[in-house]
Design goal:
about 700 residues, alpha/beta, six-stranded mixed beta sheet
Length: about 700
């Protein structure tokens, strides 16, 4: 049997206690067969049912016993017949004996493949709730040892999925059966998984096996004279949709050997001579650089490429808290010591345990293969093994470079006025909502665990692909019930907690929001003056009563008062377009909010620069410096938000160079520096050309010139 070919026997419990789960068993096994039809069409699959009323298997005919076990489908290359065998499974009437089923499945694999090398696997799905028959000789544990010896001899593995719904009371029979299944695991021939929901059952059976292929084998270089042999595997990798191929129906229907393949050829033609084809040796790639196209040949491109040497090097250690989780990028890799290398295992374990004890992580520089054009810079986290005979290892996550980080500034909720913050009642209602939808409540297994949650889009795609193979004109079917529980909250929980949800709705009273034109930019620019404290407008809903002729005058309508306050805070943009002397900052914010064209932001910035320049040049003895300072703060903030840092930096630099001989102006720049109104650095805006050191040096330059 080929290395990438698998022989699989499905052992399915159809006894009375499994009747409620058989629909999900049919779904997950059918999905497995569908994926094999797409990815592994040469695999062979057999189906064995146990807990049936009838008995039909070779061992029962040859030796007797092995009752209530039926071979429904012999081991054959996977096809539509295999999938049909998994539909409408019979509802058995006898308790299932999983040890008998395992022996029957093992006998089928040995007879079919013998000593042929290749992947052979048993997969059993049962609830293991019923007592097993006593063996003719020895104990049940001895029987498990005998089966495990045969599995090791023929290199056969087994997946055991135990399905028991939550709330089922464990008894001594179930405990004994669990111990027998775990004994298979202890003998290193089986993997045992317990699930309690139909959704988890869908994800428990790995419907597509991916060969473990290393992406790196070599030294983890701690120093020039300390290296550890490691192998690196992918721990997680996104499962993508299968590649859809172009299909041609131009071939004659009578041609049975037609491939129906579509071939695509490209031709490059000159703009000046549309009928002339340009050969490859006369073509060259070009890159846009401003208004021009810069041609770069393949030889030049190869010379420019960065060609690091293959290897994994330790750069140092850092506190685990200094590497935030949201910096992790791409897939996760697993670093394991070289199998069979005792020195590598001991060294890796010593480093991993030291890192765990000191709460540290390692920073690595990785080049997985020779000729790779990029360098992976990432963090290595220790993974201390809790399983016997499994060595300690590491997880590797790629970290971003400076160009990969996206820093966006948002206003803090704590800076909002009290009227815009939640009350204690509202906070309590939302806290209860979070507790209600907790996926890992105390005393229960976690719901929607990644290991047992299938991708609903992929599951739906394979279901529809199977349907289209039978009915070409079929429409997509409705979403399966189990998949609905992945794409939305559990409806049973929602129905049960309906009063809590209603209480949440009552806690938040909905009111009409007065319409205002394009105030988004103004809202983002709602900062305070020099100390960058949020402006807190007076509460518009506060009752203001005045004594008029001995009677209290009623406050105006709250909505009207809110609209009036908003109009005062955010003037209508119809008046935007010019910066006046009365409220220059508000006029500037109104212009930013206008955005009647793509160039409006730059126009607003230019207007503010002109107004500020005129104001500072016509300020006798610094009388208007306070207003100028407010304009500088507003302009700087806007340039950061609108990603125009160079506009502000160039303006400040040119203004200083032109007016640095005027004493009063130099004093004003010292005032700017004292209020931390400096040049915008790259840390504040990624488009800036100014580093933090350059921004500080500008401050020093202004102080030196004043002396």
């Amino acid at each position: 049997m080929a290395r990438n070919k698998e022989g699989l026997v499905l052992l399915l419990d159809v006894g009375p206690s499994m009747h409620r789960a058989l629909q999900e068993v049919e779904n997950v096994c059918s999905t497995l067969v569908r994926k094999k039809l797409v990815y592994n069409r040469s695999d062979e699959v057999g189906v064995v049912l146990f807990g049936t009323k009838e008995t039909c298997n070779d061992l029962a005919k040859e030796l007797g016993g092995y009752k209530h076990v039926v071979v429904k489908h012999d081991i054959k290359v996977v096809d539509e017949e295999t999938k049909d065998a998994l539909q409408n499974l019979p509802r058995g009437t006898a308790p299932g004996d999983f040890l008998d089923a395992i022996v029957v499945g093992l006998d089928m694999l040995i007879k079919r493949f013998g000593n042929t090398k290749g992947k052979q696997r048993l997969c059993i799905i049962t609830d293991a709730q019923h007592p097993l028959r006593d063996p003719p000789q020895g104990t049940k544990v001895d029987q498990v040892d005998t089966i495990a010896d045969q599995m090791k001899k023929h290199d056969i593995k087994m997946d055991c999925i135990v399905f028991r719904e939550s709330g089922i009371h464990h008894n001594s029979v179930m405990d004994e059966n669990d111990q027998l299944l775990y004994h298979f695991r202890d003998r290193s021939v089986a993997k045992v998984v317990q699930v309690d929901t139909p959704t988890s059952l869908l994800g428990a059976l790995k419907t597509r096996n991916v060969l473990p292929v290393t992406i790196f084998r070599g030294d983890l270089e701690v120093s020039s004279n300390f290296k550890i042999k490691v192998w690196v595997y992918k721990k997680t990798s996104e499962e993508k949709f299968p590649t859809l191929k172009k299909y041609s129906d131009k071939a004659p229907p009578s041609d049975k050997f037609a491939s129906h393949e579509v071939k695509v050829d490209y031709e490059y033609k000159s703009i000046l001579e549309p009928d002339t084809v340009v050969p490859p040796d006369q073509r060259i790639k070009g890159y846009l650089y401003g208004p021009q196209v810069v041609p770069i040949s393949s030889a030049e491109w190869e010379a420019v490429k960065f060609k690091p040497e293959k290897g994994v090097k330790l750069l140092g250690f850092a506190d685990r808290s200094s590497v935030p989780r949201h910096y992790f990028m791409k897939d996760v890799n697993s670093f394991v010591p070289e199998p069979g290398n005792t020195k590598a295992i001991v060294a890796a374990s010593a480093i991993a345990r030291a890192m765990q004890e000191m709460d540290k992580v390692a920073i690595l520089r990785c080049v997985w293969r020779q000729g790779q054009g990029s360098v992976a810079f990432g963090v290595l986290t220790p993974n201390i093994s809790s399983v016997k005979n499994v060595p300690d290892s590491f997880y590797f996550n790629v970290l971003p470079f400076a160009e990969d980080v996206r820093e966006f500034q948002f206003r803090s909720f704590s800076r909002l006025p009290p009227s815009s913050q939640p009350t204690e009642k509202q906070q309590e209602a939302t806290d209860n909502l979070v507790k209600m939808l907790d996926l890992a409540p105390p005393g229960r297994e976690e719901i929607l665990r990644p290991d047992f949650t299938p991708n609903p889009m992929l599951e739906r795609f394979y279901n529809f692909l199977d349907l289209k193979s039978k009915e070409p004109d079929a429409n997509p079917p409705p979403l399966d019930t189990c998949l609905k529980r992945i794409t939305g909250p559990d409806p049973d929980v929602i129905d049960y907690q309906a009063p809590l949800i209603q209480n949440l709705g009552k806690s938040f009273e909905l009111k009409d929001n007065p319409k205002r034109k394009k105030a988004r930019t103004q809202e983002r620019l709602a900062y305070a003056g020099l100390d960058d404290q949020a402006k807190k407008p007076e509460d518009p809903s506060a009752e203001k009563a005045k004594e008029v002729d001995g009677q209290a005058k009623k406050s105006e309508d709250p909505d009207a008062e809110m609209a009036r306050v908003l109009e005062a805070m955010f003037p209508s943009t119809e008046k935007a377009g010019k910066i006046g002397d009365l409220n220059p900052v508000q006029d500037f914010e109104a212009m930013l909010a206008e955005r009647s064209s793509s160039a409006w932001v730059l126009k607003a910035i230019e207007e503010m620069k002109k107004y500020t320049t005129d104001l500072i040049e016509n300020s006798p003895e610094g009388d208007y410096y306070k207003k100028v300072l407010e304009c500088f703060v507003a302009l700087r903030k806007a340039c950061i938000i609108e990603q125009e840092p160079n506009e502000f930096n160039q303006f400040v630099t040119e203004l200083y160079e032109r007016l640095k001989t005027v004493d009063d102006v130099v004093k004003f720049f010292q005032l700017l520096a004292s209020k931390n109104v400096l040049l915008i650095s790259k840390a504040e805006a990624s488009d800036s050309d100014v580093t933090e050191e350059m921004a500080r040096s500008f401050l020093v330059k202004t102080e030196a010139s004043s002396q």
